[in-house]
Amino acid sequence: MKNKSAVGHHMRAILAALLLMLLSLSGCITTGSGDEEFSVNETEKPGWQIGDWWLYTFETAQFGEDTARLVVTDIQDDEGLYMLGISSEREAQRHAVINHNPFLGRVTINELSVYENGDAQPVFNFPWSQGDSWEFTLLGEYWSATTTGSYNGMPVVTASSDNGHSLEYHFDGSHGFLDFFEWKNQDGDLQFRMSLTNTGSDYSGEVWFIRATDLKDRLFEGPIDGEATDTFIDSGHPSGIDFDYYVFYIDASLPQGGTGTLSLRDHTGNSILTRTYTAGTQSQELATIPSRSDEYTLEVTLTGGQSTIHFMIAGGIENYWEL
Predict the structure, then answer these.
(1) How many CA atoms lie within 13 A of 27 on its CB side?
(2) pLDDT in tens, 204-251
(3) Alpha-carbon torsion 311, 317, 322, 323, what sign?
C-alpha cells in the first residue's frame, strides 16, 4: 500500500501539470476585443477585377438561408465605379423589394462605398485603425460606426443606429471584401446576415442586379371593418427610365378563423393582382408582374383579431450580365 503523503504529492504534481497545460492553451485563444493587439492583413483598399466573386450564405428574417455569389460585373473607370451583381435572380428580386442586401449595384473604386438613395455611403474606412469612428446611411438607418478591434487579421466594425439597430462586420483584406456582416433590429432580432464561404476570380455564368424604387410598404392588421384601401403612383424610376416590371412580396398570416383578400387595380379598375386567403394560411410570396406608369389602388379585406397581410411592391430596372 502506497504512503498517503506520496499519493498526495503525486496528485498535486498531476494537477500542476494540468494547470500549466490549460494556461498554455488559453494563450492561443484570440477574440475580436479585449487586450488583443490590433492587427489586420491589409490596410489599403483592394483592387477588383471583372469576374472576381465571393460566395456567401445569406440569412434573412423573411426567407431563411440562401447561397449565392456576389460578382464584379463591370468597371467604369470614368465614373470611378464597380458594378456588383449576384448569381441568383431570386436573390436580386428579394433585394429589390426587401432591400436586405446593400452590397449590390454601384460601389466606388476609391473607398468601396455603396449607394443608398443615390449617395455613396462610406461603409468601410481605409486605412483601418482601431478606435476610428464615422457615420453613414444604410438599410434605411443612420449609423455611427467604430473600428473596435481585429479578429484573425480582419478589422471588426460595430455600429448602432438612431433607432437602436446594430451592425457588426469584418473586412477580409486577403480576399478583398467582407468576411461577415450582421444586422439586428432594436429587439435583437436578426434582419440580415452574410457569411463568406468561398472566393475566386474569372466567374462564368449569369449575374443580375435590379435597380429598384419602393412604391408601397403596408402592413394590414385584422379585423378590418369593411375594406381597407391605399394608393400609389408609378411615375418611373427617378432617373427617368421606365420600370421593366414590379417586384412584390406578400406575407400573409391568418390564424384559424381568419380570412382575407388582396386586390391591386389600375385607374380604370382592371385588376393586375388578386389573392384570396383562407383560415390558417401562413404564406410568403415573392414574384414579378408587368409594370405600367399609372395610379394603382390596393384593396384589402381581413378578418380575425391576429390576422395580418404585409404587402410590399417596388418598381425594378433589370441589369443582366453573362460573363
Answers:
(1) 6
(2) 999 999 999 999 999 999 999 999 999 999 988 888 889 999 999 999
(3) negative
Q: Map out the domains of the chain as residue ranges.
A: 1-30, 53-204, 213-322
- Which residue shows C-alpha cell 498554455? 24
Taking the C-alpha atoms of residue 298 and residue 235, their distance in angstroms, rounded to an integer, is 17
- The class that CATH gives domain 213-322 is mainly beta
The string of pLDDT tens digits covering residues 94-129 is: 999 988 889 999 999 999 999 998 899 999 999 999
